[in-house]
Amino acid sequence: MNPMRKLFIVLAAIVCTTCQTVAQESALKGKKVLFVYGGWDGHEPKQCHDLLKPWLQEQGAIVYSYDKLDVYTDKEMMGKVDLIIQTWTMGSISGEQERGLLEAVRNGAGIAGWHGGLGDSFRNNTEYQFMVGGQWVAHPGGKVDYDVNIKDKKDPVTKGLKTFHMKSEQYYMHVDPSVKVLATTTFNGGGDAPWIKGVVMPVVWKKYYGKGRVFYSSLCHDANDFEVPEAFEIMKRGIEWAAQSKEN
Ligand SMILES: [Zn+2]
Fold first, then answer.
1. CB half-sphere exposure, 5, CA atoms < 13 A
2. How far is the CA of 229 from the centre of ligand 1 (A)?
């Protein structure tokens, strides 16, 4: 073969491989992401926002950051976003703010979050909890050693991952039986709650609320917990999945 032609084929193959890699990583490319952070400070909402935002932007997402819930009443914003990421532990949400959030998700915006920022927000709001698919109720023993077991090895969010260890809060949650459970943890009965020994609890799940995709992980009490590679990877993949509801 002509050396120039051979070089061209090799270069084309390299470019093609690069294209494929970029295409695989860019489920978020061009997606409008509303990132709402606040609530109880112990969960480091701003630090977690500052950790995730650059990654979202690297993927090509357009990120709108707000530290106030009032953005949920902005009809134009709520109508255009592909994904809402919320980290807002406890606190309270007004009726109008809640309606704005729930309507956007029902209409096809995805929502993704972790730990108390999605799974322990607005304790008085049952329709919000119906959307999330679970509510935190306890973390016996505080920060403890526990394993996360991959339940669904085929789902793109957990595919290729193996059992991993966390030293953090092990969330005990009231969970909607309709969620698709991707990972679980088993309680050992410590922390003054011996009666829950052997309980298998969902840790990562996905579900729908109307047309919107809902993704939740109970991991990552604070920004340091994102240093566990599997915990961060699960969150990234879940965010990518949830951002695609409007493509269906
Ligand atoms: Zn926590």
1. 2
2. 18
pLDDT exceeds 50 at position 218: yes
Contact 183, 148 (CB under 8 A): yes
Going from the Cα of 146 to the center of ligand 1, the distance in angstroms, rounded, reads 15
Topology of the domain comprising 29-247: Rossmann fold (3.40.50)
C-beta of residue 203 within 8 angstroms of C-beta of residue 217:
yes
CB 219 within 8 A of CB 183: no
Give me the mean pLDDT over the 141-155 stretch. 97
CB-based neighbours (< 5 A) of ligand 1, an ion: 169, 221
Predicted TM-score (pTM) of the model is: 0.90
Rounded to whole angstroms, the Cα distance separating 84 from 102 reads 11
What lies within 8 Å, CB to CB, of 132 at 6+ separation is 113, 118, 119, 214, 216
Largest Cα–Cα separation, the chain: 76
pLDDT digits (tens, 9 = 90+) for 37-58: 999 999 999 999 999 999 999 9
CA 87 – CA 231 distance, rounded (Å) = 16
Q: What pLDDT is stored for residue 26 in this prediction?
A: 74
- 159-184 residue pLDDT tens: 999 999 999 999 999 999 999 999 99
Domain boundaries, the chain: 29-247
